[in-house]
């Protein structure tokens, strides 16, 4: 993959070695085949160094006319401040966005926000990654159609925004490949896919998401 942050690409000599190694770990990570992932421009004002990826869980030929259907998508940003951020309690921070469309009846479940947050922490725990200072929000929104759009099915969207501080390993480098894999598991979870490793998911306390209906006409 190409570098997604100009600072990393154009000023490699100034880029801290731990950050370079962390980015290489993200580039080398292998995720489930249903996940398509690519680098994307990273924010420049959140930290001196940043790298970003965008991903989608794709179901082949599931859309109208046999088109591929995106079941969930999101973004992962790796931030690094060698001077250490007090709020992070570390020099690295992982920031993620995960979103998907759910069954409308699931959106009325009063426990959905708590369960959704447990999908994130459960995915991290199932992968055995070490992290601290987690924070985030879970947002759900419903769309209902009227008039000329009344034939469309109601839609319920869920959005999980989260960040956490990955524990640093040898040389001050976190195991970012494991963190990315855990986030990929979260993407598949909100997409309604069964866990790739049910035993690991149970160890992480991951609550399974009921399977969603097939793609609906737009």
Overview of this structure, please?
By secondary structure, this protein is of the alpha+beta class. It has helices at 6-10, 17-28, 112-126, 176-190, 198-203, and strands spanning 35-40, 49-59, 69-85, 90-102, 131-143, 155-166. A 6-stranded antiparallel beta sheet has the order 1-2-3-4-6-5, with helices on one face. β3 and β4 (90-102) form a beta hairpin. α3 packs antiparallel against α4 (176-190). The two termini are 34 Å apart. This is DUF3000 domain-containing protein. InterPro entries: DUF3000 (IPR021555).
Structural descriptors:
single chain, alpha+beta, 5 helices, 6 strands, 24% helix, disordered N terminus, disordered C terminus
Give a quick summary of the entry:
Helix content is about 25%, strand content about 35%. With about 220 residues, it is an alpha+beta fold.
Percentage of residues in helical conformation: 10-25%
From the N-terminal CA to the C-terminal CA, the straight-line distance is 34 Å
Proportion of residues in β-strands: 25-35%
Major β-sheet, in short?
6 strands, antiparallel
Computed over alpha carbons, the radius of gyration is 18 Å
- Strand tally is 6
| Quaternary structure state of the chains depicted | single chain
Strand order of the largest sheet: 1-2-3-4-6-5
What integer is the average pLDDT? 83
Report the uncertain regions.
Answer: 1-11, 209-218
Count of DSSP-assigned helices: 5
What structural class do the secondary elements suggest? alpha+beta
Which term fits the overall shape? elongated
**Helix and strand succession?**
HHEEEEHEEHH
